[in-house]
Design a protein that fits this description.
This protein has a single domain, classed as 4-Layer Sandwich (Purple Acid Phosphatase, chain A, domain 2), CATH 3.60.21. Helix content is about 15%, strand content about 25%. The strands form five sheets. The protein has a seven-stranded mixed sheet, with helices on one face. The protein has a seven-stranded mixed sheet with strand order 14-15-16-17-19-18-20. The chain contains nine helices and 24 strands. It has about 525 residues and is α+β, with helices and mostly antiparallel strands. The chain starts with a helix and ends with a strand.
Length: about 525
């Protein structure tokens, strides 16, 4: 993997003063050039990435720019009025990256809120805000993390993002499924209701395969104003899961048996480039070898060490033919991988030194019995429960890590429960607590309680809570406790969904135990 500083230095050399001067002629746009707003991400104690994308004609292949490079100015201030700038400069929005702009700020002060904006062709973007992380050894009284993901554009509105933007989070962890690859649909199946429901809005292009397809899909999604508000409210810790490429993809394995591997890798490369272009991520997430994005560490002083994992790109293929609710012998395959050894080794090095330690990842770690008729016993084989050998190995390597909390998405429901190694007694001490955050819109409006919930809770003693509604979660971390608020909106099928907190859980310092607050 290319070293971040090397890549930045290379990019800087390519955009040195002579190159910028050639692009400095006045630029005019046929329409407002910042329709996607702004975003920030990947914070550390010295800065974060700020992002925008020029697109006066957002749905045209050349974005109305004629595939010409364009000069963009950025401004950063501690004041929302931008009365004094603490950082400023010019960068080139290049057609090779869809005229997206990624600026890595590295001279800011720890634990400060900053405001940022862009200027091009005499037009100014909206302003965003983001906070740097505390210094590594700092004593921190509180951290607030938003958690969100699974935002199927066709299934519902992004109302929950508007509410999340008002939460005053230090950062927002997006666990993935930012977009869905499907073509336009008149209806989608609701697992909560057990029936087809009409889509709320339609994708404007067919299923995504090419780079142009993926760019068009992201462009449609990023025009949503509720999503833009969430982006400009805080720095994002951005991940991807499966639908950014295709449902349930795993490593280099094509999701369809008759699909040549080279064709799948071509599609994945297009998807990864589009994801990079639209996400506020650092230079080491630049797509290479048909993949984008490394794993990450976010250190909030001595209070919280949050490790962002990639559970999709380095795993082996799903067992049991990827049939949900299966229980085949392959779920215990000793050769199976979920993270890959390099990522796993990175994770365990130095992990556990903070008061709280969190895994930010995509698929459920709890080993829950999830069988459906006609197979009454089984697991979700696309989750860690389908990869028991690497799951138990990792939990063994993390055995001494205290105050371990797992944050997850993917399930389109809120879940809360305890994590133990497979085969452990239900009354044995838990090793971690897991909070699974529901979807922003995927699944459309849910019934709250499904008919199978009572049976799932009965079969899994370590599971404390499950709820089928749309929304997000807010994690409040203090030295004394980790608190999870599960927020829900009453509808995503019409504007104006009302927000409520359906459940609150507390994990006391020093105990992997859920308390209903």
């Amino acid at each position: 993997m290319l070293d971040r500083r090397t890549l930045l230095a290379t990019a800087g050399a390519a955009l040195a003063a002579p190159a910028l001067a050639r692009l400095a002629a006045p630029v005019s746009f046929v329409d407002f050039p910042f329709p996607f707003g702004v975003a920030a991400g990947d914070p550390d104690d010295r800065g974060f990435v700020i992002w925008t994308r020029l697109a006066p004609k957002p749905q045209e292949p050349d974005r109305g720019l004629g595939n010409r490079p364009a000069l963009v100015r950025y401004e950063v201030s501690e004041s929302p009025s931008f009365s004094t700038l603490v950082a400023e400069g010019e960068v080139v929005a290049r057609p090779e990256l869809g005229h997206s702009v990624h600026v890595t700020l590295e001279t800011l002060r720890p634990d400060r809120v900053y405001h940022y904006r862009f200027v091009a062709g005499g037009e100014r973007s909206v302003a965003g805000r983001a906070r740097t992380l505390p210094a590594p050894g700092a004593e921190v009284a509180e951290v607030r993390l938003g958690v969100a993901g699974c935002q199927d554009y066709q299934s519902g509105l992004y109302t929950a993002f508007r509410h999340l933007a008002a939460e005053d989070c230090h950062a927002i962890f997006h666990y993935g499924d930012y977009m869905y690859e499907y073509g336009p649909r008149a209806a989608v199946f609701s697992f909560g209701l057990g029936q087809m429901v009409p889509t709320v809005r339609r994708h404007d292009g067919p299923e995504t395969f090419s780079l142009d397809d993926y760019r068009r899909r992201y462009s449609q999604i990023r025009l949503d104003l509720d999503l833009q508000e969430a982006h400009r409210s805080a720095a994002w810790l951005a991940s991807y899961d499966d639908h950014e490429v295709v449902n349930n993809w795993a490593g280099d394995v094509p999701p369809e048996e008759d699909l040549p591997a080279d064709l799948f890798l071509l599609r994945r490369a297009a998807a990864m480039q589009a994801w990079y272009e639209f996400m506020p991520v650092r230079a080491d997430a630049f797509p290479r070898n048909a993949l984008s994005g490394p794993w990450r560490q976010y250190r909030f002083g001595r209070l919280l060490d949050a490790r962002l994992l990639n559970t999709r790109a380095f795993r082996t293929n799903q067992p049991c033919g990827d049939r949900f609710g299966s229980l085949c012998p392959e779920i215990r395959d000793p050769k199976a991988e979920m993270l890959g050894r390099a990522q796993e080794d990175w994770l365990v090095r130095g992990f556990g030194e903070a008061r709280w330690n969190a895994l930010l990842q995509q698929v459920m770690m709890m080993n829950l019995e999830r069988g459906r008729e006609p197979e009454p016993r089984g697991v979700n084989v696309d989750s860690w429960a389908g990869y028991l050998a690497p799951r138990d190995r990792l939990l063994g390597r993390l055995e001494r890590v205290r105050n371990l909390v797992v944050l997850t998405g993917d399930e389109h429901q809120h879940w809360a429960g305890e994590v133990r190694r497979s085969g452990a007694r239900p009354d044995s001490p838990a090793q971690a607590v897991e909070f699974v955050t529901t979807s922003i819109s995927s699944g459309s409006d849910g019934p709250g309680t499904r008919p199978e919930h009572a049976e799932v809770l009965r079969r899994n003693p370590g599971l404390a809570y499950v709820r089928d509604e749309r929304g997000y979660a807010v994690m409040t971390v203090t030295p004394k406790a980790w608190t999870c608020d599960f927020r829900v909106v009453d509808t995503v099928r019409a504007p104006g969904g009302r927000l409520s907190t359906h459940a609150r859980f507390r994990v006391p310092d020093g105990e992997a135990r859920l308390e209903r607050a």
